[in-house]
Request: fold
Amino acid sequence: MTLLRESTPAAPRHGSTAVTNGIRVTAQPRFDIARSDPARKAWVFRYEIEMRNEGTETVKLRRRTWQIIDGKGVVHEVKGEGVVGEFPVLGAGQRFAYESFCPLSTPWGTMEGELCFTFGDEDVEKPGAPTLDVKVARFYLVADA
Reply:
């Protein structure tokens, strides 16, 4: 299923906002100086992801994929079910936000990815059911206390 994709301007600071297929995703990162140890080449970044259903149909998050690129250009791909152990259901106008973190061996990097939703709120994903792929626009992880 191919639907119109559009992007909106970046969120404040190093974050991002994108709207894909009626789902707005905003990412807002911040450097976690308390959990970082630059002397050991360990930087930790926290980020909040907010997803808002601006469409008319109920959707359920099934999985996510992240591409994390560190300051040396090394790409790390992370795939998994749900987010932070949850599979949020978003009716029209509803939102869900969560916070997570990303450790890097460099003081800066980027993250971007995709969230995969199905239509409806059923617990079990039906084989062959249409999915809704939603972009998480690139955001920047910068150790700028």
In short: Residues 58 and 143 are 38 Å apart (CA to CA). DSSP finds no helices and ten strands in the chain.
